[in-house]
């Protein structure tokens, strides 16, 4: 948590549940990403936190944007982003969304299937397209499964078809999985991408774009490699695979841009022991899995949690949300410890919640409204 | 799907994604529940679908209401429910929520821990309280885990403490788990509850209320026992456990009241094959796990799905949502079949989605807005 956020909490004006985001930390993360990968264009993954103040700040810094939907494209344009600074990165798009984006000047579209390619050719004639490869996501805490991406051989055929449909076969992309903590995850993927480049060069198509995707981690409870280590590993792999003929590079950081810029301020609703043979204290917060902490599903993302101002001994704790839903439990298996004196009304902070929290929040499950958002 | 909903869809005015609910079916379900358990007061579990038209209709039918939050209490009162017709059924409540409910005339509160009891005693002096027991939830498709409820011995101590705190020790409750398809699930639970009644009678406290909870199923893909079978099994167990001195009975149906009154209208965004060695077609809809279909987590609730108007052979299908999130996949393991000719732009209906859909929907994950709601 940054000093600015700590001061705002201390001021006592925050009603819970709330998400606070320090925009200066977002700017610092943007600078660190640029320094780590100076050869790559930065396309912020809007889905991580689509709030207007975040987009405004990033537009001012010269960021570009990766959008998952026409609603995100509209939000970026409203924040002042140039259409040429946008990539429509979801490989699954309605034809109406493609057409509206194209009409507004967006010219770069992702795809990974024949049907999507046909939609883009019809709704955005002549646009630049890149094909998403399916690559290994070992080492990611929030992998993206087989929902997206295709094989190198199919990508080659699809990009040839793109040219025949009058589109610009512009490049390839991949995604190594979100909260990817292994710097080596990129090496194989970059090699696969380079093979598509050389296959297509032999067919008369010069691809230009290598989209390295997102997945760069933020620090939760465990240390992660510095972003510079990812930059070094990626550039070494790119040079090994492409030699001196480097493609245009693009990255789509989301979590690494805003995750550690945020903190959730929550209130304990109830703290009690549930069974005599279990020394763990059940702590029910006024934010839960359906109030934004969706990435605690399967306890995949393990946030640092603190209770400032509550002292004394700690006991093992189970963390649950406020709803009547039995699956609304954040941590039951992961060991957490909280003060034994913690009681209803006390404040609990959930750290590094700037990414993938606010937008997941339900519109009103069990009547609970989404957390209030403060951008400072 | 009811004929009224089918006509509304055929009229062609529905933009997707949308949830349509037939209020006449809600009324029919209310009548069926009343007929199946004429001795039980019906407290609709608002969390299943808190829309004002549903609450209005149920107020008109004489229903009572089980609320999970102060927001739900306010919604019921706004719909015209009498405060005496409300139960604040969440065992985890902010003290401020208890106080507001009590000030508005609500007089019946659930609890299952010392701390909650102390909050109720302080914020709702003299109110009626009932203690929730933890019981087996075998047979439920959406169990409620160990998040709620306590042992019979602890419930006895807590109800004695309630009396000493000036509250009315009014009864006990339990919940056999949501979408509970076993009619025998109640027998053991009712026996446990009866033991608390007799323990407390020996201590000079006459409990009055046996809250049988919710969990009554709705029909998804598999047949379920008729609601009358649950009524018969429950009343047989109550008579066996309580003899002629029957307690006041209360049920909290949610899913059984509104589930089969609703249908989701969705559009195919993309249909494609993902791997050459997999004959399953990936069908991406414009509604997914974060657009309301949250109960497909772990493929727990398996909705019936159809594509009216699309004919021809069927193939195995994987069903996924529209977002860039890899976990936004509804069914990958459960066998589903959809027409091989299904393509982007076609309509797909997801049946029996009147309960536990709209309120789960995220406020805008990936930019996608919650489904539109139509109450007919």
Automatic annotation (TrEMBL), chains A, B:
It catalyses: L-ornithine + H(+) = putrescine + CO2. It is an enzyme of class 4 (lyase). The active site is at residue 324. SUPFAM superfamilies: Alanine racemase C-terminal domain-like, PLP-binding barrel. Its EC number is 4.1.1.17. GO terms for biological process: putrescine biosynthetic process from arginine, via ornithine. One of its GO terms (molecular function) is ornithine decarboxylase activity. The modification N6-(pyridoxal phosphate)lysine is found at residue 47. Pathway: Amine and polyamine biosynthesis; putrescine biosynthesis via L-ornithine pathway; putrescine from L-ornithine: step 1/1. Pfam families: Orn_Arg_deC_N. Its cofactor is pyridoxal 5'-phosphate. GO terms for cellular component: cytoplasm. Keywords: Lyase, Pyridoxal phosphate. Residues 24-258 form the Orn/DAP/Arg decarboxylase 2 N-terminal domain. Belongs to the Orn/Lys/Arg decarboxylase class-II family. This is ornithine decarboxylase.
């Amino acid at each position: 948590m940054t000093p600015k956020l700590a001061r705002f909490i201390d001021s006592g004006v925050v009603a819970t549940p709330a998400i606070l985001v320090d925009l200066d930390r977002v700017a610092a993360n943007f600078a660190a990403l640029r320094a780590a990968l100076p050869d790559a264009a930065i396309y912020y993954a809007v889905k991580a936190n689509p709030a207007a103040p975040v987009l405004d700040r990033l537009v001012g810094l010269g960021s570009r944007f990766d959008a998952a939907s026409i609603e995100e494209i509209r939000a970026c344009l409203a924040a002042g982003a140039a259409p040429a600074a946008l990539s429509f990165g979801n490989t699954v798009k309605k034809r109406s969304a493609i057409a509206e984006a194209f009409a507004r000047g967006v010219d770069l579209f992702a795809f990974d299937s024949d049907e999507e390619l046909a939609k883009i050719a019809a709704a955005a004639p002549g646009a630049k397209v890149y094909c998403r490869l399916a690559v290994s996501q070992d080492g990611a805490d929030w992998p993206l499964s087989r929902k997206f991406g295709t094989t190198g051989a199919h990508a080659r055929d699809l990009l040839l078809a793109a040219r025949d449909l009058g589109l610009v076969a512009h490049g390839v992309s991949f995604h190594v999985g979100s909260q990817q903590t292994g710097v080596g995850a990129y090496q194989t993927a970059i090699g696969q991408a380079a093979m598509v480049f050389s296959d297509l060069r032999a067919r008369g198509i010069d691809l230009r774009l290598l989209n390295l995707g997102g997945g760069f981690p933020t620090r939760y409870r465990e240390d992660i490699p510095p972003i510079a280590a990812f930059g070094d590993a990626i550039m070494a792999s790119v040079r090994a695979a492409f030699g001196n003929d480097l493609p245009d590079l693009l990255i789509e950081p989301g979590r690494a841009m805003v995750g550690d810029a945020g903190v959730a301020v929550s209130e304990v609703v109830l703290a009690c022991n549930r069974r005599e043979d279990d020394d763990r204290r059940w702590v029910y917060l006024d934010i839960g899995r359906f109030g934004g902490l969706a990435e605690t599903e399967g306890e995949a993302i393990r946030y640092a949690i603190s209770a400032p101002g509550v002292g004394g001994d700690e006991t093992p704790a189970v963390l649950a949300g406020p709803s009547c839903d039995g699956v609304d439990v954040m941590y039951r298996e992961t060991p957490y410890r909280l003060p034994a004196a913690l009681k209803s009304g006390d404040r609990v902070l959930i750290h590094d919640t700037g990414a993938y929290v606010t937008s997941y929040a339900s519109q009103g499950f069990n009547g609970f409204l989404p957390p209030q958002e403060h951008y400072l």
